[in-house]
Amino acid sequence: MADAYLCLRKGQEETIYPIQFAPEKLQLSTVGKKKHIKKDFVEKKGSPSKNRWERQTFSGISLGMHLLFDRSKEEGGSVRSDIEGLQEALEKCTEDTKIAFCWNEIEFSGSLKDLSAEYLMFDSQGSPVRASADLTIYCQDKDGIRELLEQDFQGLFL
Fold first, then answer.
1. Rounded to whole angstroms, how far apart are CA atoms 152 and 148?
2. Which of 57-66, 70-79, 103-112: highest mean pLDDT?
3. Where are the beta strands (DSSP E) in the chain?
4. What is the pTM of this model?
5. pLDDT cut 70: percent of the chain above it
6. Where are the alpha helices (DSSP H) in the chain?
7. Do residues 158 and 99 lie in contact, with contact meaning Cβ atoms separated by under 8 Å?
8. Cβ–Cβ contacts within 10 Å for residue 118, how many?
9. Please, which residues bridge with residue 43 across strands?
10. DSSP code of residue 79
């Protein structure tokens, strides 16, 4: 099984961040925008009726993942640099920076939507040796979404 990693791309520059353990789950969600449309209908029992219709339009797909970092078996190991390095790199993302999650034949590319981290275990000196991070990548590039869905379809059915 190939290693999973995150790749930050800005122009021709790429930075790779290896993921220590494969995610236990990946969550794909469609993202929509609600449009509110007000319509007047015929009078009912002497008073005009106004109903609001809601219509949702597709605007993209988000990929959420839960990542685990563990250095508890390493002598003097700490996950602080893993977590802080990832946070720092992602905080520097601009509109022209793309982030890709790559694992085996899966590549999901988009922009960072959300990142949160939690330290879970500490050694006797107080250094964090285990942490988790929740990361969400958002893609609204229709060609990229089409490519992802076609790739998934081909992998499942062909």
1. 6
2. 70-79
3. 5-10, 13-18, 26-44, 47-70, 97-103, 106-122, 128-139
4. 0.70
5. 71
6. 80-91, 142-157
7. no
8. 11
9. none
10. S
